């Protein structure tokens, strides 16, 4: 069954690694729908969050190939229900829209969005949520004239409680046993 | 600087101020490197200048093309079990390494390639001979890195050697900018013993080993497959102990060739597309399939949906990514083959499977009748590749190292060369790189100078890297070169005959005079065109002290059989 998977990859912070990771997807013709990179809770460990559409069989093999990379500490895959995730979207709308009065304000409020800045020519609205939600706000803002729209990649934390640090400890023990 | 005053190995923790270039050489010495295959050029000149003072400690082999350096390093690594080392300059020097890196990657050969790079301030400016070597080599290396500071050189090299040889071995590339080579550092060398993100081998789960042993103990028709992992893990004796104790017939993959003696009574031959009849059909009859250190290449499995469906599969493999990649394992053992098979030996009970073993011999007899007799004792005028290879093999008493290129001759040689010692087969298995054999044979000879090394090469592949005859001449490495000449790209021609209605599209070759070419390079040579001269020719080749080239004209349109056609099940192997 083809569905969305979130792939979380924990790595050393070396340059070139992003390339090494993405060519694994390219080689298997898997399109990356979104990608974010940030620090993780462990100092010096970086976290990649990728979203792809694929089948579990393929994703399993893909994650093994990623984990095989020397500078990758751990890689996991999740279906949506196994993570808590968010995306952020920014909408730049002409200030004229404000003059539409109640409709516009109501729209912002109903969507739990907020106004980040009001300039003489434009306003910037921020909304966090799942893609469907930020997409819906975009649709409803279109009549007001959307000058620019940008949506971030997914950020996600997993529901299982095992901590990255305990995985790292296990890896270290494994290396000591087999050294 | 006086060569005699150089300290070598730098084992003490005392630091010494030197250039990055000299630190490269010192680091290699600390890793016990005594042979480097390479080619100089602008961006690696500081390293070559440093090497000039260390010629007595490092034998630098000047190849004639960087691809030759990689294949030579592969041959060296495969026979010796050591890490092969290459030098190349930036730009074209580095890009010429790519085929060899890809070959080493898919065949798990430990290589460390050091490339020079333009000075760091020129990176990204399209400077002369600048290429994004990290980017270009990323897909074909186990790991790579770029060094722009002299002080980072020893650490990078230590890491490179550790990664190249540990776990599932593979090629590693270090790109060193010219300013890093010129820069000064306080040198000290610490071998790398651990990288926190990298677990080269996992600990063996004894519960799993017990499950595997139980399957084997209850098996009526067990069958064991020997891959290159057996050789890499030095698990040859453990595997022999296991198959003898439990009376398990075994077969080897192309890369597993020579792990055990050819004439071992349980050795049923080679798997795969042009492997032997019995092991292919028995794959689909066995009840427990024990795969050791192999990855179920498509040339081994044929149609995976019809591969060993009736069997429980035990997969012993050091690389976790290989488990369930092609053939699902009922009992996966992610471990070093030596450790895993050693543990199984403790748990497996002595057993006998006389009828089952005998059924292999019955199947083998069919192959002897339909294929092997014609290959080895042909009634026709033209010589077969099989009879030539077998004749060489017999004169070596199974002690020679076989190096093969890619194509029909490779399959004939793999089928008919006989082995007595492990690490005696060097071939391009996964990538199928034509042009591999000649440089690989040079490297193999330098990796085991006391052994006879015979390169069996087709007329097509030979012409892809024949410039390395010059390297062989210059080093006087006593490589025996056997060209099996059918004036065709024989394997492609065979496929055209069988699957493309004999439309021989661009496979016939008009060849140069190979004897003259060889002699022009200073290597004595001989051409044999008739069977009655074959023995004499082979003797002349093997008895010559230095390198020698023997060209044998073989039947123009012979085919390699048996054959599992692409997309067919292994049990549908064709004998004619």
TrEMBL record, chain A:
This enzyme's EC code(s): 2.2.1.6
GO molecular function, one term: acetolactate synthase activity
Keyword Amino-acid biosynthesis: yes
TM spans (from-to): none
Keyword tags: Amino-acid biosynthesis, Branched-chain amino acid biosynthesis, Transferase
Residue span(s) of domain ACT: 6-80
Database matches in InterPro entries: Acetalactate_synth_ssu, Acetolactate_synth/TF_NikR_C, Acetolactate_synth_ssu_C, ACT-like_dom_sf, ACT_dom, AHAS_ACT, AHAS_small-like_ACT
Oligomeric and partner information: Dimer of large and small chains.
PANTHER family: ACETOLACTATE SYNTHASE SMALL SUBUNIT (PTHR30239), ACETOLACTATE SYNTHASE SMALL SUBUNIT 1, CHLOROPLASTIC (PTHR30239:SF0)
Similarity-based family: Belongs to the acetolactate synthase small subunit family.
Main function: Catalyzes the conversion of 2 pyruvate molecules into acetolactate in the first common step of the biosynthetic pathway of the branched-amino acids such as leucine, isoleucine, and valine.
Protein name as it appears in the record: Acetolactate synthase small subunit
TrEMBL record, chain B:
Enzyme Commission code: 2.2.1.6
Alphabetized UniProt keyword annotations: Amino-acid biosynthesis, Branched-chain amino acid biosynthesis, Magnesium, Metal-binding, Thiamine pyrophosphate, Transferase
Reaction(s) the record says it catalyses: 2 pyruvate + H(+) = (2S)-2-acetolactate + CO2
Domain Thiamine pyrophosphate enzyme N-terminal TPP-binding span(s) in chain numbering: 18-133
CDD domains: TPP_AHAS, TPP_PYR_POX_like
Domain Thiamine pyrophosphate enzyme TPP-binding residue range list: 405-552
Binding note for cofactor: Binds 1 Mg(2+) ion per subunit. Binds 1 thiamine pyrophosphate per subunit.
Cofactor(s) the protein requires to work: Mg(2+); thiamine diphosphate
Record flagged with keyword Zinc: no
MF (Gene Ontology): acetolactate synthase activity
Domain of life: Bacteria
Pathway: Amino-acid biosynthesis; L-valine biosynthesis; L-valine from pyruvate: step 1/4; Amino-acid biosynthesis; L-isoleucine biosynthesis; L-isoleucine from 2-oxobutanoate: step 1/4
Pfam annotation, one family: TPP_enzyme_M
EC category: transferase
Domain Thiamine pyrophosphate enzyme central stretches: 210-344
NCBIfam families: acolac_lg (TIGR00118)
Family: Belongs to the TPP enzyme family.
Name by which UniProt lists this protein: Acetolactate synthase
Organism whose genome encodes this protein: Fulvivirga kasyanovii
Record lineage: Bacteria, Pseudomonadati, Bacteroidota, Cytophagia, Cytophagales
């Amino acid at each position: 069954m083809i569905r969305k998977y979130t792939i979380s990859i924990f790595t050393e912070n070396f340059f070139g690694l992003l390339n090494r990771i993405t060519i694994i997807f390219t080689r298997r013709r898997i399109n990356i729908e979104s990608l974010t990179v940030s620090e993780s809770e462990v100092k010096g460990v970086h976290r990649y969050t990728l979203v792809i559409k694929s089948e579990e069989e393929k994703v399993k093999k893909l994650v093994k190939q990623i984990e095989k990379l020397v500078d990758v500490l751990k890689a996991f895959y999740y279906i949506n229900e196994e993570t808590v995730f968010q995306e952020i979207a920014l909408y730049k709308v002409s200030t004229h829209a404000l003059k539409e009065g109640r409709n516009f304000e109501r729209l912002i409020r109903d969507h739990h969005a907020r106004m980040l800045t009001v300039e003489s020519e434009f306003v910037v609205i921020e909304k966090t949520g799942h893609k469907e939600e930020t997409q819906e706000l975009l649709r409803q803002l279109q009549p007001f004239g959307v000058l620019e729209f940008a949506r971030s990649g997914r950020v996600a934390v997993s529901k299982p409680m095992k901590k990255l640090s305990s995985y790292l400890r296990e890896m270290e023990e494994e290396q000591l046993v087999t050294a | 600087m006086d060569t005699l005053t150089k300290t070598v190995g730098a084992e003490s923790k005392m630091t010494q101020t030197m250039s990055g270039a000299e630190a490269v050489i010192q680091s290699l010495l600390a890793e016990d490197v005594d042979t480097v295959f390479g080619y100089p050029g602008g961006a690696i000149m500081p390293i070559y200048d440093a090497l000039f003072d260390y010629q007595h400690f490092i034998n630098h082999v000047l190849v004639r093309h960087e691809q030759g350096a990689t294949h030579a390093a592969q041959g060296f690594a495969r026979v010796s079990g050591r890490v092969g080392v290459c030098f190349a300059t930036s730009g074209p020097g580095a890009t010429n390494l790519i085929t060899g890196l890809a070959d080493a990657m898919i065949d798990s050969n430990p290589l460390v390639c050091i490339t020079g790079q333009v000075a760091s301030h020129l990176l990204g400016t399209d400077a002369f001979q600048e290429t994004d070597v990290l980017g270009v080599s990323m897909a074909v290396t186990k790991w790579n890195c770029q060094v722009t500071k002299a002080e980072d050189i020893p650490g990078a090299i230590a890491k490179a050697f550790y990664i190249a040889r540990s776990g599932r071995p593979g090629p590693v590339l270090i790109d060193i900018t010219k300013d890093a080579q010129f820069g000064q550092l306080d040198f000290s060398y610490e071998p790398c013993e651990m990288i926190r993100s990298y677990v080269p081998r996992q600990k063996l789960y004894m519960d799993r080993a017990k499950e595997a042993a139980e399957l084997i103990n209850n098996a009526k028709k067990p069958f064991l497959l020997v891959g290159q992992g057996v050789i890499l893990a030095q698990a040859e004796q453990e595997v022999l102990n296991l198959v003898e104790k439990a009376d398990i017939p075994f077969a080897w993959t192309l890369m597993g060739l020579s792990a055990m003696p050819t004439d071992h009574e349980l050795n049923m031959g080679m798997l795969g597309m042009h492997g032997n009849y019995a092991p292919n059909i028995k794959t689909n009859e066995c009840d427990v399939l024990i795969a050791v250190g192999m990855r179920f290449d498509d040339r081994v499995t044929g149609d995976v949906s019809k591969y060993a469906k009736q069997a429980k599969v035990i997969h012993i493999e050091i690389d976790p990514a290989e488990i369930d990649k092609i053939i699902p394992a009922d009992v996966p053992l992610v471990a070093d083959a030596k450790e895993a098979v050693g543990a199984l030996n403790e748990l497996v009970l002595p057993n006998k499977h006389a009828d089952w073993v005998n059924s292999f011999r019955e199947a083998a007899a069919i192959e002897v009748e339909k294929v092997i007799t014609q290959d080895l004792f042909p009634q026709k005028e033209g010589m077969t590749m099989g009879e030539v290879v077998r004749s060489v093999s017999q004169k070596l008493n199974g002690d020679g190292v076989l190096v093969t290129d890619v194509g029909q001759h490779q399959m004939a040689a793999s089928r008919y060369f006989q082995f007595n010692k492990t690490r005696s087969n060097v071939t391009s298995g996964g990538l199928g790189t034509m042009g591999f054999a000649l440089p690989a044979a040079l490297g193999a000879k330098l990796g085991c100078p006391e052994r006879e090394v015979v390169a069996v090469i087709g007329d097509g592949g030979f012409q892809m890297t024949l410039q390395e005859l010059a390297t062989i001449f210059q080093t006087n490495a006593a490589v025996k070169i056997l060209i099996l000449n059918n004036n065709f790209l024989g394997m492609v021609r065979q496929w055209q005959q069988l699957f493309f209605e004999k439309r021989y599209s661009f496979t016939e070759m008009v060849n140069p005079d190979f004897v003259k070419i060889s002699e022009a390079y200073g290597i004595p040579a001989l051409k044999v065109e008739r069977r009655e001269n074959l023995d004499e020719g082979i003797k002349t080749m093997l008895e010559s002290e230095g390198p020698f080239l023997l060209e044998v004209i073989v039947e123009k349109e012979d085919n390699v059989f048996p054959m599992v056609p692409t997309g067919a099940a292994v049990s549908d192997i064709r004998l004619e």
